[in-house]
């Protein structure tokens, strides 16, 4: 099987990150660009996210998920990106040899000069695992329910309790209400919302759905189908508070307890994974630890806005095409490590090449550990030296913070050593 | 009314192995199972060990069946394609008190005629570097092994079906039909069925079944629940079977590999009067976790991907052999109070190991009762497992996809299960008709995402292949449908 | 007449600013804590005529999927959303459909159209 098909850039996944990467690779001059997608049509999870609110930040347009996806699907076809749909990638090697399989194409072997990993993320199920009780029908992740309700056209229940205040959970609370179901409660174990505030307003408040912070599910009742859940309050150490148990009758429990980058293929390829983000270590061109393998979007770290995923895809695709054309992805200047400092849980990218500022801003993105409900500084430091800072009205773990590093900092950065990012009260 | 020579009540490993053993003879055999699938009880919710047999009290039926059953698994696994490996097992002692207890176990093992030896702590650490570094020594039993517990039920029953045995699921035994002392049939939720023999392999309910025949009214099963955690084999690897030094009531909480590559820890042992209660509990899981960490301190809670619980069919039958004092023995006998009933009851550990030996004992009991037991000339002892895409070489995968493109559609990405495999299970000799039945057979949905990706796809395939609306596709039979209505059909 | 202060969370963009609105009966005197001008406009709208973008789906025949996602062409009066959803449950369209195609013009007489959120090509049943 040595006559594997050759491609300049192969993108794994056709969500917003993958589409953007393929388009920008093509536009940057890569010759054959292929997207491999496991579903029967391109677009990824956006196709089931039928709610509005996509594209506001970067494109200044308020689009539903499928419409947002379609902009890029149409463009990808226009610029000549090739697609292999309904196809699952089984393996990627360090040498960028790809094995995939599908009903239509059978068993496929490909050789790529550059690969962009854009597999997105999957939903956490840890809560589901730990939940005591039987294993009845009626316990689903919010995303599975979303696919059923919005794409396949079936309702997975009549009375719902949602565990977790992630965006998908809150959005599903509204969707289910719109389609005639009753959402009894949203429970959140943390003392703060884990999704966006506006989703709390327009999904929960607008529809009179009660949110209980510092509450979780203690037990599922029902053997064949969920009959109720037992909710309980937790203290600061996450211990159940006796006496606060409440049985909430329902037939379905949805889990919206977070997302994890999907990186099985990346690991197989030998890509080093950051244990905190769950995604590859990347430089500012989104190249991973394996030369020629890039990654873009939620596979790197879980974003809360699709616009940022698209931007990351554009950068990764451009870098991949450059590598293919010139053998150089990210300039050859030294890369500075970028570390999470005070109250920062993680920061992406993990390394930064000051040289690269010649092309324009580098977007540094981070999440805080603890919420700070007052004005903060987001600071870029080298040792004790403050290089750059930006004000934000508040900092919340649920909302990613972006710190653009401007080209005018290039010289100062070139003289710097290790960089840290901190978020401190103003 | 349809009539059989033999009806087996219960599709656990004992019932399935018995069905296969009887399929060799000119007998009309029916196996009934009250659940939507076979192997849903203790048979598949256990430690998956083929025990060496050092542990049972010498002279008990448990000791005898274990000794007879253990060596049968090599040929069985070959003939029936049951995943099985003889790994050997270790009883791990930490400290002088436990070290001393090993001597007693060695003694008992030898009395049971089981190959065993004591190895040093150092040797134990060499063989399993993840073991508690304070290990002082271990009892090694080389003949212990690991088996795929569900395949141990499915494979023999499929082979039985190939040889003419019939199977009815969602069929519940409700009572005997008798003519004087002779059993002539049974009542079920699906109507009456005539037969000459009933084999009671009803697991935790085997006491109730025999009581309906007026047999052994003093025999009772008091289930003991055992809870387990499964760790992702990709995150934590361990291939051995590690037992702690046992207590009076159980073999203790183990850490062991599995034929699938995952690591399993458990079980605890809690008396549970509810025979259908397989709910896991926070306290139980905590107990299992801390117990397991005594054997392997570096177990990582983040690697846990699933939990489950099983009910041991612990009975109170005294051992009949003279001079042996033991009151939780197996019952493998022809009933005294009626004609036409064989009771296989109180079959807890080492029941899985013993099942093929118990099945052969049933054949002897029938022969002893005057059945001619004529062999079928065309009996086929071989059953082949259907292909598992993820276990094939790349070349074999390519070949399979060429032959049937449905093997090219991956439905479960974590375990790489294809549509072709799922369709094959739905149309197999013992068909999978629910999501959990597919999951048990193919491992769909058992990986990291726990079904979030595959569930809608599998529901779709089940609906299509069974010719039923998606709203009638269930997780595990009646009352467990996944979907309630089309999105747009809102009730007024 | 007494003035009163209310907090309103702006949903215009993902920032979700908590606006402080001071008003006297129906008259808004001032809007504070808004991150941008859109917040000020939002507060005025929210307190007088609250509206929301509505996204849902309608039945489609002959398409890849049984449902077609749709959305309102402009924010829709909040008190009438339920009524709109009921009306849309009765709508069924035929594939093909193009992105932004009007599925229901002038919904409930509001002047707001319901548009397709994606294209959906017809699927030929041969499979």
Task: Tell me what the structure shows.
- The complex is a heterotrimer of chains A (426), B (492) and C (127).
- Chain A contains ten helices and 26 strands.
- In chain A, the strands form six sheets. In chain A, strands 1, 2, 3, 4, 5, 6 and 18 form a seven-stranded mixed sheet that branches. Chain A has a five-stranded parallel sheet with strand order 8-16-10-11-12. A five-stranded mixed sheet of chain A has the order 21-19-26-23-24, with no helix packed on it.
- Chain A is α/β, with parallel strands linked by helices.
- The radius of gyration of chain A is 22 Å and the shape is globular.
- In chain A, α6 packs parallel to α7.
- Chain A folds into three domains: 1-122 and 259-330, FAD/NAD(P)-binding domain, CATH 3.50.50; 125-257, FAD/NAD(P)-binding domain, CATH 3.50.50.60; 333-426, Immunoglobulin-like, CATH 2.60.40.
- Chain A starts with a strand and ends with a strand.
- With 492 residues, chain B is α+β, with helices and mostly antiparallel strands.
- Chain B has three domains: 3-43 and 150-220 and 316-368, FAD/NAD(P)-binding domain; 84-145 and 222-311, 2-Layer Sandwich (D-Amino Acid Oxidase, Chain A, domain 2), CATH 3.30.9; 389-472, Orthogonal Bundle (Arc Repressor Mutant, subunit A).
- Chain B contains 13 helices and 23 strands.
- In chain B, β10 (173-179) and β11 form a beta hairpin.
- The radius of gyration of chain B is 23 Å and the shape is globular.
- The model of chain B has no long low-confidence stretch (mean pLDDT 94).
- Chain C has 127 residues and is of the alpha+beta class.
- Chain C has a five-stranded mixed sheet. A three-stranded antiparallel sheet of chain C has the order 1-2-3, covered by helices on one side. Chain C has a two-stranded antiparallel ribbon with strand order 4-7.
- In chain C, β2 (18-24) and β3 (27-32) form a beta hairpin.
- The longest helix of chain C has 12 residues, at 37-48.
- Classes of the chains: A alpha/beta (426), B alpha+beta (492), C alpha+beta (127).
């Amino acid at each position: 099987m040595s006559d594997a098909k050759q491609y300049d850039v192969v993108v794994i996944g056709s969500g917003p990150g993958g589409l953007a990467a393929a388009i920008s690779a093509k536009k940057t001059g890569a010759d054959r660009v292929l997207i491999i997608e496991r579903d029967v049509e391109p677009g990824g999870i956006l196709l089931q996210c039928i709610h509005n609110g996509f594209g506001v930040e970067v494109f200044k347009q308020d689009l539903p998920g499928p419409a947002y996806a379609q902009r890029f699907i149409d463009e990808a076809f226009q610029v000549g990106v090739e697609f292999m749909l309904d196809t699952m990638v089984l393996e990627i090697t360090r040498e960028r040899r790809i094995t995939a399989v599908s009903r239509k194409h059978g068993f496929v072997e490909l050789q790529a000069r550059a690969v962009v990993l854009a597999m997105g993320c999957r939903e956490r199920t840890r809560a589901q695992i730990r939940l005591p009780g039987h294993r009845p029908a009626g316990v689903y992740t919010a995303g599975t329910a979303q696919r059923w309700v919005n794409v396949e056209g079936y309702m997975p229940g009549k009375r719902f309790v949602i565990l977790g205040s992630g965006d998908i959970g809150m959005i599903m609370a509204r969707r289910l209400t719109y389609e005639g179901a009753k959402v009894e409660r949203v429970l959140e174990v943390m003392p703060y919302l884990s999704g966006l505030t506006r989703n709390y307003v327009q999904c929960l408040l607008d529809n009179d759905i009660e949110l209980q912070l510092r509450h979780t599910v203690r037990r599922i009742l029902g053997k064949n189908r969920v009959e109720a859940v037992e909710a309980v309050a937790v203290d600061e150490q996450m211990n159940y508070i006796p006496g606060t148990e409440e049985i909430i009758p329902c037939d379905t429990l949805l889990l919206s307890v977070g997302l994890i980058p999907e990186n099985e293929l990346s690991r197989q390829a030998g890509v080093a994974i950051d244990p905190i983000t769950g995604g590859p270590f990347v430089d500012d061109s989104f190249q991973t630890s394996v030369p020629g393998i890039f990654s873009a979007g939620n596979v790197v770290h879980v974003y809360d806005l699709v616009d940022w995923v698209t931007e990351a895809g554009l950068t990764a695709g451009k870098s991949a095409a450059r590598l293919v054309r010139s053998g150089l992805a990210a300039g050859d200047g030294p890369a500075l490590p970028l570390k999470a400092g005070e109250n920062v849980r993680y920061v992406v990218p993990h390394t930064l090449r000051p040289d690269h500022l010649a092309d324009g801003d580098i977007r540094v993105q981070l999440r805080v550990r603890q919420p700070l409900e007052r004005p903060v500084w987001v600071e870029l430091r080298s040792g004790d030296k403050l290089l750059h800072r930006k004000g934000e009205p508040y900092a919340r773990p649920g909302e990613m913070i972006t710190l653009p590093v401007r080209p005018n900092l290039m010289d100062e950065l070139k003289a710097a050593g290790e960089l840290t990012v901190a978020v401190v009260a103003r | 009314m349809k009539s059989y020579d033999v009806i087996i009540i219960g599709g656990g490993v004992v019932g399935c192995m018995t069905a296969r053993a009887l399929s060799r003879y000119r007998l009309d055999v029916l196996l009934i199972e009250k659940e939507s699938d076979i192997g849903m009880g203790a048979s598949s919710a256990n430690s998956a060990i083929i025990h060496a047999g050092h542990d049972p009290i010498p002279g008990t039926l448990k000791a005898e069946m274990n000794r007879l059953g253990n060596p049968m698994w090599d040929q069985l696994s070959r003939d029936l394609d049951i995943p099985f490996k003889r790994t050997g097992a270790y009883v791990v002692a930490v400290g002088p008190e436990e070290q001393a207890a090993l001597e007693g176990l060695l003694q008992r093992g030898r009395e049971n005629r089981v190959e065993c030896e004591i190895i040093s702590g150092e040797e134990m650490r060499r063989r399993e570097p993840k073991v508690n570094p304070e290990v002082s020594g271990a009892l090694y039993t080389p003949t212990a092994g690991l088996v795929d517990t569900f395949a141990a039920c499915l494979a023999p029953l499929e082979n039985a079906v190939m040889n003419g045995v019939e199977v009815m699921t969602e069929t519940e035994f409700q009572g005997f039909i008798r003519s004087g002392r002779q059993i002539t049939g049974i009542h079920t939720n699906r109507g009456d069925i005539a037969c000459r023999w009933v084999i009671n392999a009803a697991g935790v309910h085997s006491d109730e079944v025999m009581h309906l025949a007026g047999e052994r009214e003093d025999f009772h099963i008091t289930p003991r629940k055992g809870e387990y955690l499964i760790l992702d084999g990709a995150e934590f690897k361990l291939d051995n079977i590690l037992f702690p030094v046992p207590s009076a009531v159980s073999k203790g909480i183990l850490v062991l590999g599995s034929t699938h590559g995952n690591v399993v820890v458990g079980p605890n042992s809690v008396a549970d009067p509810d025979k259908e209660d397989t709910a896991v509990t926070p306290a139980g899981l905590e107990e299992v976790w801390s117990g397991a960490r005594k054997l392997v301190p570096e177990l990582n809670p983040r690697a846990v991907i699933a939990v489950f619980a099983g009910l041991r069919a612990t009975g109170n039958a005294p051992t009949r052999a003279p001079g042996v004092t033991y009151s939780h023995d197996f019952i493998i006998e022809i009933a005294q109070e009626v004609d036409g009933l064989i009771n296989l009851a109180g079959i807890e550990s080492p029941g899985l190991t013993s099942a093929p030996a118990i099945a052969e004992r049933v054949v002897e009991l029938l022969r002893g009762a005057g059945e001619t037991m004529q062999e079928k000339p065309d009996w086929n002892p071989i059953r082949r497992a259907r292909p598992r895409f993820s276990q094939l070489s790349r070349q074999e995968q390519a070949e399979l996809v060429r032959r049937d493109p449905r093997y090219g559609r991956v439905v479960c990405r974590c375990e790489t299960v294809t549509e072709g495999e799922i369709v094959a299970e739905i149309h197999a000799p013992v068909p999978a008709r629910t999501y959990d039945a597919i999951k048990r057979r193919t491992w769909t949905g058992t990986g990291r995402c726990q079904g979030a990706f595959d569930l809608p796809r599998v529901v779709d395939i089940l609906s299509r292949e069974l010719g039923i609306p998606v709203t009638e596709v269930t997780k595990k039979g009646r009352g467990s449908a996944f979907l309630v209505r089309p999105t747009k059909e809102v009730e007024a | 007449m007494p003035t009163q202060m209310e907090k309103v969370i702006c949903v215009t963009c993902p920032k979700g600013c908590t606006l402080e609105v001071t008003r006297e009966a129906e008259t808004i005197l001032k809007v504070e804590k808004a991150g941008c001008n859109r917040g000020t406009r939002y507060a005025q709208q929210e307190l007088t005529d609250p509206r929301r973008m509505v996204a849902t789906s309608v039945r489609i025949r002959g398409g890849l999927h049984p449902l077609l996602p749709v959305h309102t062409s402009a924010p829709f009066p909040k008190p009438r959303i339920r009524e709109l959803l009921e009306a849309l449950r009765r709508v069924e369209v035929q594939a093909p459909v193009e992105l932004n195609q009007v599925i229901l013009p002038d919904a409930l007489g509001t002047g707001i159209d319901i548009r397709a959120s994606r294209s959906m090509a017809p699927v030929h049943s041969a499979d």
